[in-house]
Amino acid sequence: MAEVTSIKLIYGTAWKKDRTAELVYKALRCGFRAIDSATNPQHYNESGAGDGVRMAVAEGVVERQDLFIQTKFMAPEDQRVRTSWDDSDPLEDMVHQSVRSSLQNFTIVGEEPYLDSVLLHSPMRTMYHTVVVWKELEKYVPNRVRRLGICNADVETVNTLHGHMDVDPFFVQNPFQYDRDFDIEMRRFCCDRGMLFQSFWTLTANEHIAQKPIVAHVAQMAGVQLIPAYFSLVMSLGNIAILDGTTREVSMKSDLEGVDKVRDWALGQGATEWQAAVEVFRAMLEEDDLRS
């Protein structure tokens, strides 16, 4: 498994449909080592994501042990497209069918299948049912599933799970957007507990921020494009990985290489300017330093 602490950009496979296998393969070839999918056929093609992984492994692009593969269980009432289970099945059975399907989709020939992370796509309609699902997912940890997490959740829900279940959530995947105050309370919660916040809509919902002068300044000084400069500033907020769903191979390379280039610049000759830029960026988002 790829080191969780080293995960910066996660390739998002939502809405890729029939191109999923091709794009996952290209993403891995470009250097992505983390993949996000789900058992939700309306928005994801999980089997296609698995095909892309298998192609990359078969060609020697990457080994399974170097990858972080994440998928999700989605409540049946939230799915418009029928899944492999019957709506009349007990909730516990749906969880097991979902995990088994994901394990099969990401099986590599000759290797024992496992998933690095399984997320609950969103809290169930009641906390009771959320706990029921969580307890079933726990049964796969740490062998078939390495870690658990939750998406589209508030602090109250995550706090109910953290410290009160056999397996704590390690990941929270939520939107990062202006009209949600960039989810500062949840990110502070994650930082305080050593959890990783996975942000989505990071660029889509905030293109105006990616155009700000401070982002352009970092891009110019580090010699990168605006998007990796912006992603780097977002990650500087602490304990954040970003879902990146670009379909353009040139952007895949630019994002990955750019983030690395900003890091090298920030750790070297640009250290002072970088810290000043981070402070300006945080102030622009009207938040305190989460690392303090």
Automatic annotation (TrEMBL):
<keyword id="KW-0560">Oxidoreductase</keyword>
<dbReference type="InterPro" id="IPR036812">
    <property type="entry name" value="NAD(P)_OxRdtase_dom_sf"/>
</dbReference>
<dbReference type="Pfam" id="PF00248">
    <property type="entry name" value="Aldo_ket_red"/>
</dbReference>
<dbReference type="InterPro" id="IPR023210">
    <property type="entry name" value="NADP_OxRdtase_dom"/>
</dbReference>
<feature type="domain" description="NADP-dependent oxidoreductase">
    <location>
        <begin position="15"/>
        <end position="197"/>
    </location>
</feature>
<dbReference type="GO" id="GO:0016491">
    <property type="term" value="F:oxidoreductase activity"/>
</dbReference>
<dbReference type="InterPro" id="IPR020471">
    <property type="entry name" value="AKR"/>
</dbReference>
<protein>
    <recommendedName>
        <fullName>NADP-dependent oxidoreductase domain-containing protein</fullName>
    </recommendedName>
</protein>
